[in-house]
């Protein structure tokens, strides 16, 4: 059967390919779910089976944004513990989080996904690690929400087995056993992971953090992931308190501890990585371990400023993450493009040379694809790659006097999303979701947040 084609014309294009190729006015031809061709000027004539033409005058087209770290369930606990550092924030919120159930997880996933998708995210990721007994099929609920919304998705199936009685932070009733966590993780991978080129759902093995999982869970989790051929994700080097914890409990810093448990490698990415010395960065670069940089959450929790310019210079793969919406209440990734640039310029060493607009865009697109292990099929606009891209409207008052559209997108106000495509299928039109009722999601998430608060208050 002949391919169905969509033609987008008269737009500025930032491909984010290896050469940062850009077109001041160009076209993209989509054939089924892949990019067939793109370039300057008008699209080729006499294309067959063109089912739609889009005049994108006044728009910038970029690859879809790729989120590399999130906790969807936190959508229903936003606005709490707003003046806490990480450890105190976790202690304050774990007792509430440990009472989530399947309807709560699904509603929270819908809220988190909706905010990201309407702001240009085409590939989302969720690190879910709270699995109370009797709470239902939380992984299935989260994956189902992403599928319904049409977003490409990676579920990092998390776990915790180090509770307060073992020197960890989660309450005792909020963790799984070692054996239970490994078995449930393996089942989730086998049931939901798709290794194909155009996969819409993938699964990673993701024990939560050094202070909430045992050494054995890390070691056996790494063995499980590699036996199943999937990626690995966890939190690392987020705060000075974590570094102190690792030295006191394990006699070494977080990076050395992770290496001792098999948790460095090109199949691994870690969230935050704020407190990294030169040796840590060199180890990540040597092993091609990826980083999910979450600038807004790091600022919200006063964790510090990650050394992103030094990581990039060393060759560490770096993407952007929203992080959970209990530590980044906006829940939007496109704001992280701007925040990553601005916050990294506060670094006392690099200052104005820390990041530029195109580096920030790369973090949010190709960098994210790298750390999710999907750089061969998403993250840049190139012939043969999957048709995941965004049309940003750049001719409104907010950006009208900025000549360079990439500068306008990163430095300026949040740009409206006229259209967002995943796998060649449009999922957003004029900043509204096409496959979900945003007003209903708002009502559902409000109701589930109130129900969770009542349950937590009565415990």
Largest sheet: 9 strands, mixed
* Class by SSE composition: alpha/beta
N- and C-termini, Cα separation: 59 Å
- Helix tally equals 14
Which percent range describes the beta-strand content? 15-25%
The protein's oligomeric status is single chain
Low-confidence stretches: none
Total strands: the figure is 17
Rg, alpha carbons: 21 Å
Mean pLDDT: 96
Q: What is the percent of helical residues?
A: 25-40%
Shape: globular
Write the layout of secondary structure elements.
Layout: E1 5-14, E2 22-31, E3 34-40, E4 50-55, E5 59-63, E6 65-66, H1 86-97, H2 102-117, E7 121-128, H3 138-149, E8 152-159, H4 178-192, E9 201-207, H5 215-228, E10 232-236, H6 240-250, H7 254-260, E11 268-272, H8 278-287, E12 290-293, H9 295-300, H10 308-314, E13 318-320, H11 334-344, H12 357-371, E14 389-393, H13 405-411, E15 417-422, E16 425-429, E17 432-433, H14 438-458
Parallel strand pairs: 1-4, 1-5, 6-7, 7-8, 8-9, 10-11, 11-12, 12-13
Antiparallel strand pairs: 1-2, 2-3, 5-14, 14-15, 15-16, 16-17
Helix pairs in contact: 2-3, 2-14, 4-5, 11-12, 12-13
Task: Provide an overview of this structure.
- It contains 14 helices and 17 strands.
- By secondary structure, it is of the alpha/beta class.
- β11 (268-272), α8 and β12 (290-293) form a beta-alpha-beta unit.
- The protein is globular.
- It starts with a strand and ends with a helix.
Short description:
The protein is an alpha/beta fold.
List keywords for this structure.
459 residues; alpha/beta; nine-stranded mixed sheet; four-stranded parallel sheet; 21% strand; globular
